[in-house]
Amino acid sequence: MFKVDTSAPILVTGASGYVAGWIVKSLLEAGATVHACVRDPGNQTKLQHLSNLAERTNGKLKFFASDLLEKGSYAAAMKGCKFVFHTASPFTISVQDPQQELIDPALKGTTNVLEQANNTPSVQRVVLTSSCAAIFGDNADIENTPGGVFTEEAWNTSSSLSHNPYSYSKRLAEQKAWAIAKAQDRWDLVVINPSLVIGPGLNPNATSESFSLIRQFGNGTLRHGAPKWGMGVVDVRDLAEAHLAAAFTPEAHGRNIINGHNTDFFEMSKILHGTYGDSFPIPKAAAPKWLIWLAGPVVNTSMTRKMIARNVDVPFKADNTKAIRELGVTYRPLRQSLEEMFQQQIDAGAFAKS
Fold first, then answer.
1. Which of 15, 59, 166, 324 is 20–30 Å from 98 (CA)?
2. Predicted TM-score of the model (pTM)
């Protein structure tokens, strides 16, 4: 168990994001003062759900304008903070310019936040939201891991600007973070490496890629079959709790895989079909790999045949025992996370009944 240190303000970058929202909620409920870094503090439409949270708790919420690409833009928000949660980084698969849309924000953003930590004497610990994507690029990479399982010791060496650029951006950003952290000895770095994040959002209109992926089960995109594309998933609420444990457990250290379940798209569709199959075009069958290889890049230009070959019908398996043992992380059932997320999308009008 850990206790949230409320003696100083706590910084959260990307505070309006899917994962960050739940971190902010927990901090406010603990009575902390949260310095929430966002692009536009005046955009109440996007921030109202956070303001509403603050009104219902004993915590305090202060918004600060910040830009991942602007050096020094986190200085005012970080002043006086002991703990920094750096969650801000783009999560999107469909991009036109990977360098500009993924690499630069992830790498320069991490550099700006951590160099600001170097320049802020009050900072004691930074918790970085990285990803399992920094550990592996394709499921087929598991062939090169000891014991056939991804662990915190592994690094993604198969991604590049032209192949899985999102995963490439996560690796570059995390490696840069470790380089900056190891070059000083005043504050320490703890890294969180989540798998695909699912579960309900505090803002039902959130734009995370997670929502786009889950919507495919109900909007007809996968009605002819779901791929057995292996992946890990974790509930956003469990992930937020892992972040807090990483910050406020003194012994926390290193990288931490946060992965509740090893599964695949077809397995998830079977879970949802049992509850929602009569009302929505949730796939009943697994799509054969040859068909996905043939049609996938035509339907989705961000999906390449190399990605399909190295991920479909290839299981994902990650070792989550370090975070369970050292951070006390626990995980909700997969069904609960999926159904609560899907139901939220129904309630928000994301798709109509068939």
1. 15
2. 0.95
The residue written with tokens 């592996």 in the block is 136
Edge to edge, what strands does the sheet with 230-235 contain? 196-198, 230-235, 261-264
321 closest CA partner among 311, 330, 308, 332: 330
Residue 350: what pLDDT? 87
Consecutive H or E run containing 246? helix 236-248
Q: Which residues contact 344 (CB under 8 A, 6 or more apart)?
A: 200, 201, 204
Count Cβ atoms below 10 Å from residue 90 Cβ, excluding itself. Answer: 17
pLDDT of residue 297: 76
The pLDDT, as a whole number, for residue 354 is 56
Say which residues have a Cβ less than 8 Å from residue 111's Cβ, sequence separation at least 6.
Answer: 176, 180
- Residues of the chain predicted below pLDDT 70: 90-94, 204-205, 353-354
Residue 258 is predicted with a pLDDT of 98
Which pLDDT does position 89 carry in this prediction?
Answer: 80
